[in-house]
Design goal:
Structural class: mainly alpha
Radius of gyration: 27 Å
Largest sheet: none
Number of helices: 5
Number of strands: 0
Length: about 100
């Protein structure tokens, strides 16, 4: 008999094949439990607790260094002064 967990629950949506959904439904009916409870137990048993979500170093600084000055001379002062989206973006990011 499973012990009752007293944890906060949240809803998730997952796309699974019809075959897997039928298998999950069969197991839940055989054990007289909800599909959510069966799925939660399967996930608890098969997923590690200590997943490292730390992302490694990105290429942001290297990308900026490699592309610095790429658009130099491509825009005029009139482009910068225009009252449109390009002018706004140039004033915001190219100042």
């Amino acid at each position: 008999m499973q012990t009752k967990r007293h944890t906060l629950r949240s809803r998730i949506h997952a796309l699974v094949s019809t075959r897997l959904k039928r298998r999950l439904l069969k197991v839940s009916k055989a054990e007289d439990r909800s599909m959510s409870a069966v799925l939660e137990d399967l996930m608890e048993a098969n997923l590690p607790d200590d997943i490292d979500l730390k992302v490694g170093p990105g290429k942001g600084k290297a990308w900026v260094a490699a592309n610095k000055g790429l658009l130099k001379g491509k825009f005029t002062r009139q482009d910068y002064d225009k009252d449109d989206l390009l002018g706004y973006l140039l004033r915001k990011h190219a100042s």
